[in-house]
Amino acid sequence: MIKSFAIDNFKSLVDFRLPPKPHRLGALTVLVGLNGAGKSTVLQAFDFVGHLANGQVMTWLEKREWTASDLTSRLLNKRLISFELQIEHLEEGFIAWRGSFNTAECRCTAESILVNNDHQVLRLKDGQLAVSPRHGSAAVEYPLRAINYEGSSLSFISPKDVHPAIDIVKTAAANLRSLDLLSPQAMRRRAKDGSDIGYGGERLSAYIHGLPVDAKKELMLALKEFYPHLAELGSTSLRSGWKDLRIVEEYQKDPGHTVRVESGARQINDGLLRILAVLAETSSGRMRDATSVTNSCVLFDEIENGINPEIMQKLVQYLLESKRQTIVTTHSPLVLNYLPDAVAKESVVLLFRDGSGSTRSVRLFDLPSAREKLDFLGPGEVYVDSNIEGLTEEALASLSNDVP
């Protein structure tokens, strides 16, 4: 499980850490705040680090119609983006992956992976890569002059011959999925490649088509909890390998008379498509095993968009019970109200801008005014009853008090 994430010089994220010390990220983290506070930027930062591990930074930039120079903060004047991803693992313990990404070279020029804060199993410095093998203590060194890569050195390291912690980091980072571009219009498209559902869900039909039978059954049963009339979930294979999403609903017109209604992707409502995308990403799907699911994280922007409040309550409960770690942003107090108070205290994080324009974070219910109201109001009611600008001032004051 990802314990913490820090990044510096990525858009409005300057010396930013999520969650704020001394807490840790839980199975579900909910980001709230005013428009422009940096909620979507946090999801993009996670996605960026994931594509460093995959070695697909240029492809990622092209999909978002960005250049590498668009990534750095306008508040600073430097090319390096520094990051740290902290992971808790049942067997290996605490693992920290740190790196510096050079936007001019489009790759990391410095990296390290430490286990339990003292055992370094990977070091990239001055063009020399040292990696601890799976067996033995002597690190193997590689000169990087002859290796052409983008993103992180993890992108070309084979996990079978290296220390297990390196594989754990690579798996966790590579499975970071930010769906901040999710769009029902994109999800209605026919697709060929279905290795994942795509940035906006544009490969959802091919992804569903390629799921193993057991995974498809698991997904169908989960979706049926939200839409009881759903009888079938599948896809139609068209010419040249294109796949088209389809569903079948059943209605009991009268005793003994069942009406079946089949719909293609163009007729499926927005809410069902959004729920389907969330379930497809948070179920086991094509993950290699249960451990891979547990060590992965998926991120959704404005999770409530297009979803009925009653269905939203079921979705929040589903995410709380999911094996996959989830981070969502929301503007809806209803989403917060569906959280138990104990969960809300740990999982709801307020994002805001400080006086310099940098994004900062604080747990909403660490603020005294919000914590006091939680004694007699629900988490969402506290959010509605609070002035966000007032909470921001309170959070800024708390940051000032933390400065030694």
Q: Would you give an account of this structure?
A:
With 404 residues, this protein is α+β, with helices and mostly antiparallel strands. The chain folds into two domains: 2-175 and 301-402, Rossmann fold, CATH 3.40.50; 184-286, no CATH class. Helices cover 32% and strands 27% of the residues. It contains 14 helices and 17 strands. The chain has helices at residues 39-54, 57-64, 164-174, 184-187, 204-210, 213-226, 270-282, 290-294, 309-321, 333-337, 341-347, 368-373, 379-385, 388-402, and strands spanning 2-8, 16-18, 28-32, 80-89, 93-102, 107-115, 119-125, 128-131, 140-143, 177-179, 230-237, 243-254, 257-264, 297-300, 325-329, 348-353, 359-363. Strands 2-1-4-5-6-7-8-9 form an eight-stranded antiparallel β-sheet, with helices on one face. A six-stranded mixed β-sheet has the order 10-14-15-3-16-17, sandwiched between helices. Helix 1 packs across helix 3 and helix 6 crosses helix 7. The chain is globular and about 75 Å long. It starts with a strand and ends with a helix.
CATH architecture of the largest domain: 3-Layer(aba) Sandwich
Helix content: 25-40%
Terminal residue distance: 31 Å
The total number of structural domains is: 2
**Overall residue-averaged pLDDT value:** 88
Q: So what's the overall shape?
A: globular
In the CATH scheme, the class of the largest domain would be Alpha Beta
Largest sheet: 8 strands, antiparallel
Strand order of the largest sheet: 2-1-4-5-6-7-8-9
Please report the number of helical segments.
14
How much of the residues is beta strand, in percent? 25-35%
Indicate the low-confidence ranges by residue numbers: 286-294
Which fold name is given in CATH as the topology of the largest domain? Rossmann fold
Structural class: alpha+beta
Taking Cα atoms only, what radius of gyration do you get, to the nearest Å?
22 Å
What's the number of extended β-strand segments? 17
